[in-house]
Design brief:
Layout lengths: L1 H33 L2 H4 L6 H4 L4 H8 L23 H32 L5 H10 L5 H14 L6 H25 L3 H9 L4 H12 L1 H17 L2 H7 L7 H9 L6 H34 L3
Length: 296
């Protein structure tokens, strides 16, 4: 009994530490976004006495300067114009990441199914080429990909970034889903063949329904990878209207005089899409994976 209680306590302690490590920065960003700089930087002032402020949120979305920076002698260099680009860049990143996620599922799932269930000439070589392609350093690909996108007229467009992000996440999608498809019982597909189902029908009617949690997990991974990618987003985005949030946040962070409250506001706003997607998808993914792991 004592050993069981000790195991429960250690499990709770470890889980609490992981939660604190993962969620702590998010909570700190939220706190820093609603507390004015003068309170954040002055240990003698308390947020309980002066209250919370949402002026930086108002500035990000409307451009209205916080009242403290309208006073004579206020350092307005702390209010960066890059923060005004956050809403548009957030919309750009969300569209790019969602498109990359959908393309990864549409292209990666059939490819993984073919690699898992069929034998064809060059299968091993082509699979190794796909899986090992992420090992090529990103810096070695920047110039060739830039020249390719320039020839296609996609510089300064989100479509070029979508194509690159899709290509970056596709090897992981193929690898993860091919492993899962191999574990599906062969008897199901043999029975489908006896019922005169084509390979595509077997994929749609058998493999996809049984693999929805894994497909959701790989789609979520592709979204996260695209949303946080920086180098290609910086090189291919061009004008401010097509910049993803990772590029705008880097520009904002480079301003050494930027308001801490404004910086935290931008950080928290940038986190919202990923938090929303995790809340919507993760429970379905985890429950599906756990249900699929139970035999009986």
């Amino acid at each position: 009994m004592m050993a069981r209680r000790g195991n429960r306590f250690s499990t709770f302690l470890i889980a609490s530490l992981i939660l604190l490590f993962a969620g702590g920065p998010v909570l700190l960003a939220l706190y820093g976004s609603v507390v004015p700089d003068r309170i954040l930087l002055d240990p003698n002032l308390s947020v309980l006495e002066h209250g919370l402020s949402f002026e930086t949120y108002r500035y990000v979305f409307t451009g209205e300067l916080p009242a403290s920076y309208l006073l004579e002698g206020a350092n307005r260099s702390m209010i960066s114009d890059a923060a005004r680009q956050v809403p548009q860049s957030l919309w750009n990143s969300t569209r790019i990441a969602l498109a990359a996620m959908v393309l990864n599922i549409l292209l990666g799932a059939p490819a993984a199914y073919v690699f898992a269930r069929y034998a064809f000439p060059g299968k091993k070589m082509s699979f190794m080429f796909i899986i090992l392609s992420p090992l090529v350093p990103t810096t070695a690909l920047v110039v060739p990909i830039y020249m390719l996108m320039q020839s296609l007229g996609l510089i300064g467009s989100i479509y070029g970034i979508i194509l690159v992000h899709t290509a970056q996440a596709l090897p992981f999608t193929v690898l993860i889903l091919s492993v899962f498809f191999r574990k599906l019982p062969a008897e199901l597909f043999e029975a489908a063949a006896l019922d005169r189902c084509t390979g595509f029908q077997s994929f749609i009617r058998i493999a996809v329904p049984l693999s929805l949690p894994s497909i959701g997990a790989t789609g979520l991974f592709a979204f996260m990878l695209s949303y946080s990618e920086y180098i290609f987003s910086l090189v291919l985005s061009g004008e401010a209207r097509s910049r993803p949030v990772s590029v705008v946040m880097a520009a904002l962070a480079r301003n050494t005089d930027v308001s801490w409250s404004l910086l935290n506001t931008s950080i928290f706003i940038a986190i919202i899409p990923t938090l929303a997607l995790v809340v919507l998808v993760w429970r379905f993914v985890v429950e599906g994976l756990l249900a699929g792991s139970v035999k009986g």
